[in-house]
């Protein structure tokens, strides 16, 4: 670069930015003097050459390729790095490890030491390099600043005089300074006065005057500059700029790295040695311990011991010691287990023996219970046989409506009693989950009627109101078990009456879940149930309070049985109660509708107002509910009803008033069963119809329909309709084998009602066998327990005889009162065809005949003649008035011959029974059998005092195991004679004739 060229340059931007502007101006002239053949600038060198005019040096330069401005071209170093950075490719990553080798503790420890050393030395090297760079930058700045100050002092005069030659002379000493590549003197306006060294300067030179650079920039830039002012007599006459080569920083840093690597190598060697020694110290005992553990695990050899290192107080030693302690504990546990196992075998043997003895005792107790249940069942069912059959015969006769209702109540009550007895006797079966349910058509309203009628007298005795509400949408017929459903409802009502002292008991039947379920509920106004008792109220033998067992009685089984029945029906059961206000027991069962409901609707021309004037709140609720469902408007009084309102009133109140209510339309009276006022108001015309209390749906529904349509009250409070006809078997021939003469007479009478007149009776199994051999019978009714030969052995003998003779098989049906115990299933083993349980109904007997004869029988065209006479009762102490009355009624229906036969049998067999009882002596079993037979006959004819005395004798013989003494037998002769005389006198019959015997 020539002086002229340098002098002709004018600064573009004078002022504080003059150094950067100077750099730009120095680059532009180099472009203008570039060689014609452009080369890529790879490096730059400064060579000594001949001085041009003015004392300047000539510089050889290598240029960049044509078309690239030198100002934008980096110097060779960065250029090389830039090209290398783009030209080089990253080496391929090392392939992944082909398998994970087992890493020992020593290897991991060595790697940890190596990693720690590398990290520490790397950090130390970086910190050392940083400090070395800072120190180098500070030293370079200080040296260049001092040197620039020397040149500024030397060139101050030339600068002040604007002496170019003097300025060049002052700057010429730069060649003697190592590392300085450029020196320049500029005027205050930024123009170049003189310069020495390289004329090419790069745009990224580090300006040491500016403190905002990073020391690491010195690693990537080879030149650094400083600038100091030239002062002459306190006047700034220019500036001296020095540019130094900073490439020696790389050598210094290389030395720092080299020293760091040497230190790292030494540290790693020491670290590996320490890690190896420490690893051997740790891993050898741990490896030995691991081998011992594996051996113990594989061989279950808990006698082995882990080797304890010499230094046993460190962690490895404590680990080995703990492991040995664990082995000792396991061995001790095994020893204890072996000892316990030996003792346990003995304990199991002892407890097995105890369990066997307990099981035998339980089986014996269970056998005793079964025997007791069988005996009780037989004793209860035997007298009930006569009662139920005769009640059914009476109910089937043509009677006035009220008398027939009495008979129906007797029959239904007996059936309910029998069902309850069966449930009590079969409670064990219920608990075992073997309960079976019938699936027949039933009328829910009829179930409600049966329950409220059954408990009506009991509610009346406690002055409680009892009624049932059957919703209008309840179906007329559903599929279910009427006995079980009635027992559930009966248990609810019985429980409510038991715990209610005043108020009412209300039964409700309604549908739920859009007609998919039937809900039965019973609400009372009783004592209520505490909240803490409610969760256990359906448990067996549970009541609301411990004291209630003595006060109210009961076993606590009713609700438990009801819960199981409801569960068996697929329903659910619950209770809602408040102490002091009453309780509501409810059950919901799924519905299978067989006949839909037929709601009653009031005709438009029928007056809607109905006065309900009854004292019972439950009855009033039931009447009002039915009236509202039919479209009536029930009122409590006639004040606001006007003319033509119908009236539902109590018969007693109507009778006291002696006239119909003023302006009344139709009047329906309500009276308890047997109350004279009911018949009085009906016969006197004060009432148009009469309903009985408790309100029965069988009467209320037709009365409501008649009230709603304006029709006649046909059959309501008047004569009842015809009796349902029974099938008849006039051609059947039946053999009855029973040791009890009363039972034989009942069977003959029941068969007679079914048209069977050819009946042969025998009193023991042997005579039954002889009769079966002599005559052809269509059916044999065989009692199980008979003298000489019992009924089951007799049936086996008949079957053997039939097989030997090749005769047709005769139908044999066990007529027995045994429903539990071994005797209950003995008929199957004896080869019998069926069983008729005592007490039986006419329907049961008809079914047995139909099965034996293979036909349905013929229906009688006319029912038998009814009776209407009443008789005065004998002394209550000697005879049972109810039984005597029943005999009188049977005499009216069947003729006096029936009573004569029954009393004749009793007179004939009673003395024989006493003789057998006396002959038994100390034989308790024989005494019990004789007392039982005579007691059964006495109960059937109403000899209550004699039966009571015989009951005591039987109890002493069966329970206490002692026969009757003379003191117990002494009153029997007098009681028997007095009973016979009283019976004959009551029926106006002649003195007893000699004993009559049944013939085979």
The count of helical stretches stands at 29
Mean pLDDT comes to 75
Spatial order of the strands in the main sheet? 2-1-5-4-3
Instruction: Give the CA-CA distance, first to last residue.
Output: 167 Å
Task: Name the helicity range.
Answer: 40-55%
Unreliable stretches (pLDDT < 50, length at least 5) are: 1-102, 546-550, 718-724, 858-876, 993-1000
Strand proportion, as a percent range, falls in 5-15%
- Rounded Rg: 63 Å
In terms of quaternary structure, the protein is: single chain
| Class by SSE composition | alpha/beta
- The gross shape turns out to be elongated
Got a strand count?
25
Largest sheet: 5 strands, mixed
Describe the structure.
- By secondary structure, this protein is of the alpha/beta class.
- The chain is built from 29 helices and 25 strands.
- A 5-stranded mixed beta sheet has the order 2-1-5-4-3.
- Strand 23, helix 23 and strand 24 form a beta-alpha-beta unit.
- The chain is elongated.
- The protein starts with a helix and ends in a 14-residue tail after the last helix.
Key attributes of the depicted protein:
1000 residues, alpha/beta, five-stranded mixed β-sheet, 25 strands, elongated
In brief, what are we looking at here?
The chain is α/β, with parallel strands linked by helices and 1000 residues long. The chain contains 29 helices and 25 strands.
């Amino acid at each position: 670069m020539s002086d002229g060229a340098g002098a002709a340059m004018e600064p573009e931007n004078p002022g504080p930015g003059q150094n950067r502007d100077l750099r730009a101006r120095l680059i532009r002239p180099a472009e203008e003097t570039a060689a014609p053949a452009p080369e890529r600038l790879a490096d730059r060198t400064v060579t000594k050459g001949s001085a041009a005019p003015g004392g300047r040096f000539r510089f050889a330069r290598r240029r960049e390729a044509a078309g690239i401005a030198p100002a934008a071209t980096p110097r060779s170093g960065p250029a090389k790095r830039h090209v290398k950075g783009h030209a080089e490719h990253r080496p391929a990553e090392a392939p992944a490890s082909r398998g994970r080798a087992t890493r020992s503790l020593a290897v991991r420890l060595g790697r940890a030491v190596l990693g720690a050393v590398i990290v520490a030395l790397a950090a130390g090297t970086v910190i050392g390099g940083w400090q070395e760079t800072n120190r180098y930058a500070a030293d370079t700045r200080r040296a260049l600043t001092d040197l620039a100050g020397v040149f500024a002092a030397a060139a101050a005069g030339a600068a002040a005089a604007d002496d170019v030659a003097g300025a060049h002379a002052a700057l010429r000493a730069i060649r003697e300074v190592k590392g300085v590549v450029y020196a320049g003197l500029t005027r205050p306006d930024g123009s170049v006065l003189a310069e020495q060294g390289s004329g090419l300067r790069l745009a990224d030179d580090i300006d040491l005057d500016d403190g905002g650079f990073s020391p690491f920039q010195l690693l990537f830039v080879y030149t650094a500059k400083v600038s100091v002012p030239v002062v002459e007599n306190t006047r700034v006459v220019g500036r001296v700029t020095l540019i130094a080569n900073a490439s020696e920083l790389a050598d210094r840093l290389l030395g720092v790295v080299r020293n760091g690597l040497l230190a790292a190598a030494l540290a790693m060697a020491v670290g590996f040695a320490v890690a190896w020694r420490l690893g051997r110290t740790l891993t050898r005992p741990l490896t030995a311990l691991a081998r011992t553990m594996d051996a113990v695990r594989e061989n279950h050899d808990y006698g082995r011991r882990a080797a304890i290192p010499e230094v046993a107080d460190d962690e490895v030693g404590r680990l080995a010691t703990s492991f040995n302690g664990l082995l000792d504990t396991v061995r001790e546990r095994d020893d204890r287990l072996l000892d316990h196992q030996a003792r346990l075998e003995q304990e199991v043997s002892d407890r097995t023996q105890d369990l066997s003895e307990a099981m035998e005792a339980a089986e014996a107790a269970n056998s005793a219970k079964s025997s007791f249940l069988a005996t009780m069942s037989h004793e209860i069912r035997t007298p009930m046989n006569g009662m139920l059959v005769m009640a059914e015969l009476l109910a089937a006769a043509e009677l006035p409506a009220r008398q027939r209702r009495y008979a129906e109540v007797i029959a239904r009550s007996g059936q309910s009693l029998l069902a309850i007895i069966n449930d009590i006797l079969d409670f064990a079966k219920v608990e075992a989950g073997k309960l079976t349910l019938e699936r027949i058509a039933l009328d829910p309203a009829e179930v409600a009627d049966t329950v409220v009628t059954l408990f009506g007298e009991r509610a009346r005795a406690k002055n409680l109101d009892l009624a049932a509400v059957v919703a209008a949408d309840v179906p007329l017929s559903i599929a279910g078990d009427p006995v079980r459903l009635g027992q559930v409802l009966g248990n609810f009502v019985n429980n409510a009456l038991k715990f209610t002292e005043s108020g009412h008991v209300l039964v409700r039947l309604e549908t739920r879940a859009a007609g998919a379920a039937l809900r039965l509920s019973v609400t009372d106004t009783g004592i209520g149930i505490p909240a803490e008792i409610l969760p256990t109220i359906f448990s067996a033998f549970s009541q609301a309070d411990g004291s209630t067992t003595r006060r109210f009685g009961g076993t606590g089984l009713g609700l438990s049985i009801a819960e199981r029945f409801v569960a068996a029906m697929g329903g659910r059961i619950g209770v809602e109660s408040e102490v002091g206000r009453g309780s509501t027991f409810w059950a919901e069962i799924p519905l299978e509708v067989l006949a839909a409901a037929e709601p009653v609707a009031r005709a438009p021309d029928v007056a809607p107002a109905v006065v309900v004037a009854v004292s019972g709140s439950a009855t009033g609720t039931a009447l009002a509910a039915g009236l509202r469902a039919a479209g009536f408007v029930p009122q409590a009084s006639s004040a606001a009803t006007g003319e033509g309102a119908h009236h539902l009133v109590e018969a007693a109140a109507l009778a006291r008033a002696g006239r119909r209510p003023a302006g009344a339309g139709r009047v329906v009276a309500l009276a308890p069963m047997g109350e004279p006022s009911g018949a009085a108001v009906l016969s006197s015309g004060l009432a148009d119809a009469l309903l009985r209390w408790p309100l029965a749906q069988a009467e209320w529904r037709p009365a409501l329909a008649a009230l709603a349509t304006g029709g006649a009250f046909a059959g309501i409070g008047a004569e009842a309709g015809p009796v349902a006809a029974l099938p008849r078997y006039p051609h059947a021939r039946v053999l009855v084998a029973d040791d009890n003469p009363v039972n034989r007479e009942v069977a003959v009478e029941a068969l007679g009602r079914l048209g069977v007149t050819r009946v042969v009776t025998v009193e023991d199994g042997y005579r039954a066998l002889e009769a079966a051999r002599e005559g052809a019978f269509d059916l044999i009714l065989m009692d199980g327990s008979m003298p000489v030969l019992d009924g089951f052995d007799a049936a086996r003998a008949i079957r053997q005889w039939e097989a030997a003779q090749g005769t047709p098989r005769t139908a044999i049906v066990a007529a027995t009162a045994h429903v539990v115990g071994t005797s209950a299933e003995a008929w199957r083993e004896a080869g019998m065809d069926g069983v008729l349980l005592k007490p039986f109904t006419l329907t049961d007997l008809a079914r047995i005949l139909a099965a034996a004869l293979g036909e349905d029988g013929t229906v009688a065209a006319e029912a038998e003649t009814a009776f209407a006479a009443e008789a005065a009762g004998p002394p209550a102490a000697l005879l049972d008035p109810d039984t005597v009355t029943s005999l009188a009624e049977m005499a009216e229906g069947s003729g006096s011959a029936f009573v004569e036969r029954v009393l004749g049998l009793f007179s004939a067999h009673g003395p024989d029974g006493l003789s057998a009882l006396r002959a038994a002596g100390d034989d308790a079993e024989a005494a019990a059998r004789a007392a039982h037979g005579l007691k059964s006959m006495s109960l059937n004819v109403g000899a209550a005092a004699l039966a009571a005395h015989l009951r005591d004798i039987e109890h002493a013989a069966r329970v206490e195991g002692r026969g009757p003494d003379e003191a117990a037998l002494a009153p029997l002769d007098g009681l028997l004679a007095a009973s016979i005389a009283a019976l004959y006198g009551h029926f106006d019959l002649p003195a007893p004739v000699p004993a009559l015997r049944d013939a085979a």
